[in-house]
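Batch job 17 of 40 flagged for manual review because the log was empty.
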Amino acid sequence: MASHGGMKKVPDLPGGVVNKATNDSKITPGLSSLAELWLAQLKQRCPPDWCSLIPTLNLENPDRILAPKSLPVLSYLPQMAKQAPKENQPLINRLIHSKSDLHFNQTYSAEDFGEDFLQQYGWIKFLGPDAYWHSDVLSSGLVLFGDNVTYPEHWHVAEELYFPISGTAEWYHEEKGWKHIAPCPLIHHASNIKHSMRTSGEPLLALYVWRGGNLVQKSNI
C-alpha cells in the first residue's frame, strides 16, 4: 500500500526511468493537483468494494518520480476538453496544463497492433506497482484514444472498470456485443472477458481501474 504521510520503500523498476522519491525530491509540477482530481473521480465512481481498496495517498509526495514522456495521442487533449461534460473539464484542463512534465506510456508495440494504433493510444498511471503512488492491489490511471482507432479484442486476468470521461465510443463485451457509450457510466470487464473499443469522430479519455491478478500484465491479444 502507499505511504500514510511518509515515503514508503518501493521496488526498483527496470529501464532507469524511475527513481525512488524522497522527501526532498523535486515533485513533478502539476502532478499533485492532477492526482487530486483523478482520485476524486475514482472515489466518486467506484463501487464500495473497490473503494475499500484505495490506499491513503499523500498526494504531495509520490512514491516514485517518473521521467517525463510524451506521446502523439496527447494532441487530442484540446478536443477531449471541448467535448467533455462540464464536470469533467477541470481534470482534462489540468492534464493539458501539466502534460509536458508527466510520464505517459504504452503497453503495446507496432508489432502488436501497428504504428497507426500507437499514434492514437496511450495512458498515464497514478496508482499501481509501477506508478507514481504504489499499490499491489489496485492499478488506476487515465487511458487516451484518438478519434479514429480500434483497440482490438483483448483480455486479462485482472478485473477491470472503465469510466469514460470524454468522448462517445463503441465498446465491445464478448457476452453483450457492441454498444455506443457516452460519459460517464461504469463499464465492467470480469477476469478474462474479451473486450474491445473503437472511436469514430471523437477521441476518448477514460479512467480505468484494475484489481486482481498481475497488475502489470500485458493483455492477451
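Reviewer: the log was empty due to a logging misconfiguration, but the result itself is present. Confidence is low (pLDDT under 50) at residues 1-9, 12-19, 21-25. Unflagging and moving on to job 18.
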